[in-house]
Write a structure and sequence with these properties.
- This protein is mainly beta and 110 residues long.
- The chain contains two helices and six strands, in the order E-E-H-E-E-E-E-H.
- A six-stranded antiparallel β-barrel has the order 1-2-3-6-5-4.
- The longest helix is centred in the middle third of the chain and has 9 residues.
- The radius of gyration is 15 Å and the shape is globular.
């Protein structure tokens, strides 16, 4: 696991006068970058998804985040696959903008 990724969460907060706001938090994780297989790519495309990048991290480090950042780009996690025997989880992602991350609202917090 030699790639640095950041798991992203949007947290609902309030500003000084009580207006609701969203804050983006980042959790640093080390991951292994994986290849997206041809079969996986075409199956996702058939359902309207476009997998671009996939990572593997330790299962205990994943808190159901919906987004991640890698090399300055934001990605939405479109599929997870847990390999229980190895205690690892694969995160298959598609690229998005920061505005899209903030628009999704609350991701589940740890």
């Amino acid at each position: 696991m030699n790639e640095l990724i950041y798991l992203l969460k949007t947290v609902n907060t309030e500003n000084d006068i009580g207006d609701p706001t969203k804050t983006l938090t980042k959790e640093e994780r080390y991951a292994k970058k994986l290849e997206i297989g041809q079969r996986e790519f075409y199956q996702a495309a058939a359902t309207g998804l476009k997998p671009e990048i996939k990572f593997e991290i330790w299962t205990f480090e994943y808190g159901n985040e919906m987004f991640l950042e890698y090399e300055g780009r934001n990605y939405k996690i479109i599929k997870t696959y847990e390999r229980k025997m190895e205690e690892k989880i694969e995160l298959t992602c598609t690229s998005i903008t920061n505005k899209e991350v903030m628009a999704y609202g609350n991701a589940q917090a740890n």
